[in-house]
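Q: What structure does this chain adopt?
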Amino acid sequence: MMILTASVGLFALTEYIVASIMQRAPYTITLPLSLLAIIGVTICLMICGAVVRLYHHWIAPQIRLKLSLQRVLSGEIPIDEMADAEGEITRAAGGLAPLIPAIEDLLRALRESRAEVGRLDAEMRQKVAQRTDALERRLGSLQAQASRDPLTGLLNRRLLEQFADDLVRRATAEQLPTCVIMMDLDDFKLLNDTLGHAAGDELLRSVGQLIRSSVRDNDLAFRYGGDEFVILLPDTGRAEAAAMVQRLIDLIDGLAKPLNVARKPRLSAGLASLWECPGNPTAKELLETADRTLYDVKKERKAKLKTTRKVG
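A:
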């Protein structure tokens, strides 16, 4: 429709120009109307052809190429997809065809740079993940070292107060049975004096292993200092705690049996239950009760030993 309108307009313009020339000319040129029509149509077709060629050869390829590049740069289509259509792009480029090789080179360079950036990004992420993992392992190792006694592998005394407070607070709030065992080794000094500190350290190391293998997952065992140990037993009644004490005594008796000393080291233990303590005891009071019980046990054992010696 646009071409027809342009043709009619051009025909009218041509007729007007010819008429103007004929009026000004000193002589008259007579041309057949059909010939004038043919000339007008020919001129119109030439002009329309030029417009169509201009559009298809320059304007349309420019629009298509611009849209394609925009889609590639925005990531809507991958660079590989556009590169795979190089022949089609070249055929459709029209007057822009000489620019296509340069555009293709730029696209290849862009694709390579993006691939390199992706590779470097992946490599950096991997290195960061590895270093983060190594750092976390190192921190975990340092935390474990800071919280555990290096000789026995038990938790150290520094953490006892914190864990004991939390345990008693929870047990009081939820009305749960809770027990504490405080232990030490009788005649440990005699072992050190007779066989040396290396033998004493070896015995402490073995006792720590026995305690770790005897407690449950939710129990907490500590080296309180020297040859003293503490075990916190959450959700545990007195009977169950007493059974654990007897089991540890038997195990350590067997452990000390081969030792060549005048009196074999033995385990003494004081047991305290949260609900057997008067009032509303704190963690400190619970530990002090277990400590007093341990003192009474050791005192009674010494008295029995003296009686046995007198009888003997």
